[in-house]
C-alpha cells in the first residue's frame, strides 16, 4: 500500500475533507426548513428584505465616510489629495471585507429562503403576495409570470424561457446546497452531468446580489445566457432583485448599461470581455457600461478559463497598407518545397521498408535512419502511419529517435540533412533546412533572399569602421535595419505558409464556408465564428486554399480571458470536468476544485478501452458494436474527434443500412433535430466528443429498461476531461448506460505519446490482424500519455499568460490613468505627478554645470516657462534644488493658465445664465497653439463652480486624447516586438526574457512621451478667440472710450465664441472589429429547445408570442388605477 493510500485512509481524501467542512452549514440550512414552511409568502419575502438592510447597515459608516471625502476632495490642493484617496481605497476594501463576513452569517437564512421559494413555485400554480412597486413595474413591462390584482401581486409558476414555456418543478437537493456553498466561497464546484448546475447557481447568485454590487453569471454561448436569465429570473425578481442579460442588447447602448446596473447580469464570456475593452476606449463616462467587477460565476468553467483562454480578445481597426501582404506572392515557392518534400518522404519510406526487411544489421540501421527521416519530413503521411502499426516498427523508430536526440541533439543535423524542412509535430513547429531554403529561392539572383542576416555582427562591423563619418555610419545602419525588417517579414510569411501546408488540414482544423476559412473547435467540433488564427497564420491558410486573404489589422485593445476574470473580487465556476485541470485552476486563478457528490449513485458501466493495430480494424469493430446495440433497442452516441472521421463512419453505417444522424462542423444547421432524437430507441448519433454541452439527453422508460444510452468513443482525446465529458452524456441522475473507447496504434495520441514500453510489450504478445486488446495496464498507459499532453498544453497556456502578464501590468496602469481622466477623479493628482516626473527627467538629462542653455531651452519648449535661476546661479545649485525650483515654477505656471481660462470664460457664462437663462451643454473653444478643442461643458455646472468645471473638462480631454494616441502606438510596437523576439531562440536565448526587458523599455519611453505630450498641451492651453478684421477708428471715437476700457488691449476685450453642443452620442464602434464574435451558431437555439423537450416526440419550434398589447387609454397593468399613458406608458 502506498504512503498516499495510508494518508487517505487516516485523514480522508480531499473531497471528503471538503465535504466535512461544509456539512455543518448544510445542517443549519436544513434545520431552518420547518420554520420557513410556517411563514406566509410576505413573511418569506421579508426575510430577504431584512438581510438587505443588515448588509447596508454594516457598511453604512464606510459608505458615508467615502461620500464625505469625495464631496470635499476637489477643493483641496493637489498635494493634499493623495492621502484622502488612500483613505477611500482603504474604506472600499473594508466594505468588501465586511460584506464577506456578513454574507457568511446570512448564508443559512438566505439559502433556506431560496429553497423554500423554489418549493412553493413547484407546488403551487400561483403565489399571492402584497404588491410592491417592483411587482407593479414588472407587470407593467409585460412579464408573463406576474399580474396585479388590487394591492396583491399574483406570481405564476410557468413562464417563457428560451422560446419555450416551462413549468417550475425544481427544488434544491442537499448536494445542490453543498454546490451553492462552494460557489459562494469562490471555488469551482465539479458536478456530474444532469445534477442541476443551473439551479445550484441560484443560491450564491441570489445571496451575493443582496449587496447591490452586481453579480455576473457567465455562459459559453448567448442561447444559454438568454435562456438562464429567463428561466431563473422570476425566482430572483420575486424577492425584489433586478435581472437582465447583456446579450439581448446592442453593445455600448443605454439598454446594455441598464443590464449591467441590475443586481444580476447574465452574459457570454466574450461579451463581458469586449465590454471591458470598449469601456477603456470610451470618450465620455456615458459611453461606459460596466461597473466594478465584484462577483462572477462561470458556467462550464473549464471551457471558458482553459479552452477559450488560449486566444486573447482583440478589438482591432484598419491600418495603412493593410492589404500589402506577401502570402500570395510566396505561396507557389512554398508549394514547390512542400511537393519536393512529399516526393522525398515517399522515397525514404520505400527505402526504409526494403532495408528494414534485410537480415544485415548495418542495412537495417540504414533503413531505420530512412524511416526516421520520413517521419521528421511528413509525420502525418498515411502510408507511414500504417507502416508504423506493424510489429516492431514503432519501437525501432523510437530507438532511432532517442539516438539522434541524445547529447542535446548533437547528431540531429546529420539525420535531417536530406530534408527540405523538419516538422516537430508535438510542438506544432516547422523549420526550413539549407536544402529547403535553396529550393525555396529557386532561380532567384539573391541566394540569401529568404535568409535572415546576422544583424548584430553587421551593425558591429559598421560601428567599428573608422573610415566612415557619423552621417555615413548612421545611413549604413539604417539600410541594414531596413533590409533586416524586410527579410524578417519575408521569412515570417514563408514560415506561416509552411505551417499552413504541413500542420493544418482542411475539414479537421478548419472548414471553408461561404468562401471563408472558419476554425473548427477541437473540443466541440463547432465552427468558431469570428475567430482567426493569430500572427498571419490565418492569412497563410487563406492563401493556401485560394480564398480572399483578409487585410492586416492593428490592435487597439486586447486582453486574455485569464486576465479579465482575475479582475473580479471573487470568482467561482461550475462544470462536470474540472478535476483533471485542478492544478492549472489553482496556479493561474487560485481557484480550488471541490468535487460534489451525485444525488443518486452513478449506474453507468465504464468499460476498459479496446485497442486494435490499425484504424481500419478499429472502425470495423465500432460498426459491429453499433449493430449489436441497435438490435438491443438502445440509443447510441458515437464520439469522434474530426469531421473526416464522422463522415467515414457515416458511410460505413450507410453501407450496413443503419439509420443514423451526423452532427459535425459542416452540419450544425441540423443540430436541433439531431439532439431531439438522440435519446430515442435504437437511434444512432455520430457527434464530436463535447457535442450538446449545456443540455441533457433524456431517456424514456423503454430505453432505460433496455440498458440506457450507450457511448462509443472512436479515439481518445489528448485531454482526459474531454473524454469524461463524452462519458457524462450517459448515466445522468442514476440512469443506466455504458461507455467504451476504441483505439488503434494509428491514432494521434497513440502515435505521439504512447510509451516505448507499451509498444514493445504488444509486439512480444504477437497480436494478429483484427485482434483486440483490453487491459487495465493499457488504460493506465493511455492516461499517462494524456497527462503528458495536458502538462504540455498547460505549459503553452501559461507561456501565453506570461506574455500577456507583461502587457497586463502596463494595461492596468494605462487603463487606471484613463479611468481617472474619463471620470475626472484623481486627474489632478495624475497631472501633478506628470509635471513632476517630466521636470525630473529633463533635470536628469541636463545635469552638467555647462548644460544651462540646453536646460533652459527644453523647459521653455515643454512647459512654456522660464527657468527661475540665472546662468551664474545654476552651477552652485544642487540637483534637488534645481528640481524643486523648476517644479515650483511649472506648478505656478500651470495654475496661472487655469486661472486665465476661468477669468475669460466666467463673464460669458455668468451673462448667459443670469441674463439669457442658458441651460444645457455648450462647446468652449480651447487651443494649445496647434489644435483647437471644442470642450463640451454643462453651462449650469460651469456657473456654479465659477468655471472650474470647464478647466477640468479641458484637462480630461487632453489626457484622453494623449493616452489613446500613445497606447495605440505602444500596442503596435509590442505586436512587432513579440514577432521579432521569436528569432532570439536561434541565438539560444529565451524570447520571453527578451520580451520582458524590451517591453519594459518601450513602456518607459511611451510614458515619457505621454507625459511630455500631455503637459506641453496643458501648459499652452488658452481660450481660443478668433481674430477679427481690424476696423479703422476715428480719432474722436477713440477719445470717447470709456474710462474703464482704457489700458485694455484689443484681444482681451474680445469675448470667446461659445456654441450650443449637439446632444451626446455614444462612441461609434462599427469601424472596429472584434476577433471573437459571440453570435449564436446556426440552429443552436432550436437544438437547445429540442434537447430540453421530452424525448420520443418530434418538437416543433414555437413562434414567439407577444404579450397582450396595452392601449394608451387602457388601465395600466401595474394596478395603480391610472391610464397607461399617464403611468408606465408615459413618454412611449
The main β sheet shows up as: 7 strands, parallel
**How many beta-strand segments?**
30
Share in helix: 40-55%
Stretches where pLDDT is under 50 for at least 5 consecutive residues are 1033-1053, 1076-1108
User: Biggest sheet: strands side by side, in what order?
Assistant: 8-9-7-10-17-6-18
Radius of gyration: 35 Å
* Molecular shape: flat
Q: Averaging pLDDT over every residue, what do you get?
A: 81
Structural class: alpha/beta
Give the distance, in angstroms, between the N- and C-terminal Cα atoms.
Answer: 75 Å
Number of discrete helical segments: 40
Q: Strand fraction band? A: 5-15%
Descriptive account of the structure:
The chain has 1132 residues and is of the alpha/beta class. Helix content is 53%, strand content 12%. It contains 40 helices and 30 strands. It has a seven-stranded parallel sheet with strand order 8-9-7-10-17-6-18, sandwiched between helices. α13 packs across α18. It is flat and about 105 Å long. The model is unreliable at 1033-1053 and 1076-1108 (pLDDT under 50).
Amino acid at each position: 500500500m502506498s504512503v498516499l493510500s495510508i494518508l487517505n485512509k487516516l485523514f480522508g481524501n480531499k473531497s471528503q475533507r471538503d465535504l466535512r467542512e461544509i456539512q455543518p452549514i448544510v445542517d443549519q440550512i436544513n434545520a431552518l426548513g420547518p420554520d420557513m414552511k410556517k411563514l406566509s409568502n410576505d413573511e418569506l419575502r421579508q426575510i430577504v428584505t431584512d438581510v438587505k438592510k443588515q448588509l447596508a447597515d454594516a457598511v453604512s459608516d464606510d459608505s458615508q465616510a467615502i461620500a464625505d471625502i469625495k464631496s470635499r476632495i476637489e477643493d483641496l490642493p493637489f498635494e493634499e489629495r493623495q492621502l484622502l484617496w488612500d483613505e477611500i481605497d482603504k474604506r472600499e476594501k473594508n466594505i468588501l471585507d465586511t460584506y464577506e463576513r456578513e454574507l457568511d452569517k446570512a448564508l443559512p437564512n438566505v439559502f433556506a429562503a431560496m429553497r423554500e421559494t423554489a418549493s412553493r413555485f413547484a407546488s403551487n400554480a400561483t403565489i399571492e403576495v402584497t404588491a410592491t412597486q417592483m411587482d407593479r413595474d414588472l407587470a407593467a413591462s409585460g412579464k408573463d409570470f406576474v399580474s396585479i390584482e388590487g394591492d396583491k401581486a399574483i406570481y405564476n409558476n410557468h413562464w417563457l424561457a428560451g422560446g419555450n414555456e416551462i413549468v417550475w418543478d425544481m427544488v434544491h437537493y442537499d448536494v445542490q446546497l453543498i454546490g451553492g456553498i462552494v460557489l459562494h466561497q469562490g471555488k469551482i464546484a465539479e458536478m456530474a452531468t444532469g445534477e442541476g448546475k443551473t439551479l445550484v447557481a441560484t443560491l450564491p447568485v441570489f445571496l451575493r446580489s443582496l449587496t447591490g454590487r452586481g453579480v455576473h453569471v457567465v455562459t459559453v454561448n448567448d442561447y444559454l445566457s438568454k435562456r438562464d436569465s429567463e428561466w431563473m429570473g422570476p425566482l430572483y425578481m420575486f424577492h425584489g432583485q433586478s435581472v437582465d442579460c447583456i446579450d439581448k442588447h446592442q453593445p455600448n447602448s443605454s439598454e446594455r448599461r441598464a443590464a449591467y446596473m441590475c443586481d444580476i447580469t447574465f452574459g457570454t464570456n466574450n461579451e463581458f470581455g469586449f465590454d471591458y475593452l470598449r469601456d477603456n476606449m470610451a470618450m465620455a463616462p456615458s459611453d461606459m457600461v460596466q461597473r466594478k467587477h465584484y462577483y462572477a460565476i462561470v458556467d462550464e468553467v473549464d471551457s471558458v478559463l482553459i479552452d477559450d483562454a488560449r486566444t486573447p480578445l482583440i478589438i482591432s481597426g484598419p491600418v495603412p497598407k493593410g492589404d500589402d501582404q506577401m502570402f500570395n506572392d510566396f505561396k507557389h515557392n512554398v508549394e514547390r518545397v512542400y511537393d519536393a518534400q512529399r516526393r522525398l518522404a515517399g522515397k525514404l519510406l520505400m527505402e526504409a521498408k526494403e532495408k528494414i526487411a534485410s537480415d544485415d544489421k548495418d542495412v537495417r540501421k540504414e533503413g531505420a535512419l530512412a524511416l526516421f527521416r520520413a517521419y521528421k519530413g511528413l509525420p502525418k503521411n498515411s502510408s507511414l502511419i500504417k507502416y508504423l502499426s506493424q510489429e516492431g516498427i514503432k519501437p525501432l523508430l523510437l530507438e532511432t529517435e532517442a539516438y539522434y536526440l541524445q547529447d542535446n541533439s548533437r547528431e540531429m543535423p546529420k539525420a535531417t540533412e536530406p530534408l527540405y524542412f523538419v516538422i516537430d509535430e508535438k510542438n506544432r513547429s516547422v523549420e526550413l533546412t539549407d536544402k529547403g531554403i535553396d529550393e525555396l529561392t529557386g532561380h532567384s539572383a539573391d541566394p540569401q533572399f529568404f535568409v535572415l542576416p546576422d544583424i548584430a555582427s553587421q551593425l558591429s562591423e559598421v560601428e567599428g569602421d573608422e573610415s566612415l563619418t557619423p552621417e555615413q555610419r548612421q545611413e549604413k545602419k539604417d539600410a541594414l535595419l531596413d533590409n533586416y525588417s524586410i527579410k524578417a517579414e519575408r521569412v515570417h510569411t514563408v514560415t506561416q505558409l509552411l505551417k499552413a501546408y504541413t500542420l493544418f488540414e482542411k475539414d479537421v482544423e478548419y472548414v471553408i464556408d461561404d468562401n471563408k476559412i472558419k476554425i473548427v473547435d477541437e473540443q466541440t467540433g463547432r465552427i468558431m465564428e469570428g475567430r482567426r488564427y493569430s500572427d498571419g497564420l490565418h492569412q497563410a491558410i487563406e492563401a493556401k486554399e485560394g480564398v480572399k486573404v483578409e487585410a492586416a489589422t492593428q490592435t487597439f485593445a486586447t486582453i486574455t480571458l485569464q486576465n479579465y476574470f482575475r479582475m473580479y473580487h471573487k470568482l467561482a465556476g461550475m462544470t462536470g470536468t474540472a478535476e483533471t485541470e485542478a492544478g492549472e485552476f489553482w496556479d493561474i486563478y487560485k481557484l480550488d476544485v471541490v468535487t460534489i457528490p451525485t444525488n443518486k449513485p452513478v449506474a453507468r458501466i465504464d468499460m476498459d478501452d479496446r485497442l486494435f493495430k490499425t484504424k481500419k480494424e478499429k472502425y470495423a469493430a465500432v460498426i459491429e458494436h453499433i449493430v449489436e446495440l441497435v438490435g438491443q433497442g438502445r440509443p447510441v452516441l458515437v464520439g469522434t474527434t474530426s469531421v473526416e472521421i464522422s463522415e467515414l463512419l457515416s458511410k460505413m453505417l450507410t453501407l450496413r443500412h443503419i439509420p443514423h444522424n451526423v452532427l459535425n462542423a459542416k452540419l450544425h444547421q441540423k443540430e436541433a433535430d439531431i439532439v431531439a432524437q438522440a435519446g430515442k430507441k435504437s437511434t444512432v448519433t455520430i457527434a464530436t466528443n463535447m457535442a450538446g454541452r449545456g443540455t441533457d439527453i433524456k431517456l424514456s422508460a423503454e430505453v432505460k429498461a433496455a440498458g440506457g444510452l450507450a457511448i462509443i468513443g472512436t479515439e481518445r482525446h489528448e485531454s482526459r476531461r474531454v473524454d469524461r465529458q463524452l462519458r457524462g452524456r450517459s448515466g445522468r441522475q442514476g440512469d443506466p448506460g455504458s461507455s467504451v473507447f476504441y483505439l488503434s496504434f494509428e491514432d494521434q495520441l497513440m502515435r505521439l505519446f504512447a510509451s516505448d514500453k507499451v509498444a514493445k510489450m504488444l509486439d512480444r504478445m504477437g497480436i494478429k490482424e483484427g485482434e483486440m486488446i483490453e487491459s487495465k495496464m493499457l488504460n493506465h498507459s493511455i492516461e499517462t500519455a494524456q497527462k503528458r499532453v495536458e502538462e504540455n498544453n498547460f505549459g503553452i497556456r501559461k507561456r501565453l499568460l506570461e506574455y500577456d502578464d507583461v502587457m497586463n501590468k502596463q494595461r492596468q496602469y494605462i487603463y487606471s490613468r484613463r479611468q481617472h481622466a474619463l471620470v475626472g477623479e484623481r486627474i489632478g493628482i495624475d497631472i501633478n505627478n506628470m509635471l513632476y516626473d517630466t521636470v525630473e527627467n529633463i533635470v536628469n538629462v541636463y545635469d552638467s554645470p555647462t548644460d544651462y542653455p540646453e536646460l533652459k531651452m527644453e523647459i521653455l519648449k515643454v512647459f512654456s516657462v522660464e527657468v527661475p535661476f540665472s546662468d551664474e546661479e545654476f552651477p552652485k545649485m544642487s540637483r534637488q534644488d534645481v528640481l524643486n525650483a523648476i517644479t515650483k515654477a511649472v506648478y505656478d505656471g500651470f495654475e496661472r493658465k487655469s486661472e486665465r481660462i476661468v477669468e475669460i470664460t466666467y463673464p460669458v457664462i455668468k451673462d448667459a445664465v443670469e441674463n439669457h437663462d442658458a441651460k444645457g451643454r455648450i462647446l468652449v473653444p480651447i487651443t494649445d497653439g496647434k489644435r483647437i478643442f471644442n470642450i463640451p461643458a454643462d453651462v449650469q455646472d460651469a456657473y456654479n463652480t465659477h468655471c472650474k468645471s470647464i478647466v477640468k473638462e479641458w484637462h480630461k480631454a487632453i489626457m484622453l486624447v494623449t493616452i489613446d494616441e500613445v497606447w495605440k502606438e505602444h500596442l503596435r510596437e509590442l505586436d512587432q516586438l513579440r514577432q521579432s523576439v521569436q528569432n532570439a531562440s536561434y541565438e539560444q536565448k529565451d524570447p520571453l526574457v527578451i520580451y520582458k526587458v524590451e517591453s519594459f523599455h518601450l513602456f518607459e519611453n511611451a510614458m515619457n512621451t505621454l507625459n511630455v505630450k500631455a503637459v506641453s498641451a496643458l501648459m499652452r492651453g488658452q481660450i481660443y478667440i478668433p481674430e477679427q478684421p481690424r476696423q479703422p477708428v476715428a480719432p474722436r471715437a477713440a477719445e470717447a472710450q470709456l474710462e474703464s476700457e482704457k489700458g485694455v488691449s484689443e484681444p482681451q476685450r474680445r469675448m470667446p465664441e461659445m456654441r450650443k453642443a449637439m446632444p451626446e452620442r455614444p462612441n461609434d464602434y462599427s469601424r472596429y472589429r472584434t476577433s471573437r464574435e459571440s453570435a449564436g451558431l446556426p440552429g443552436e437555439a432550436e437544438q437547445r429547445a429540442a434537447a430540453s423537450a421530452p424525448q420520443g416526440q418530434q418538437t416543433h419550434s414555437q413562434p414567439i408570442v407577444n404579450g397582450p398589447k396595452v392601449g394608451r387609454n387602457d388601465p395600466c397593468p401595474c394596478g395603480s388605477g391610472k391610464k397607461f399613458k399617464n403611468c408606465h406608458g408615459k413618454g412611449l
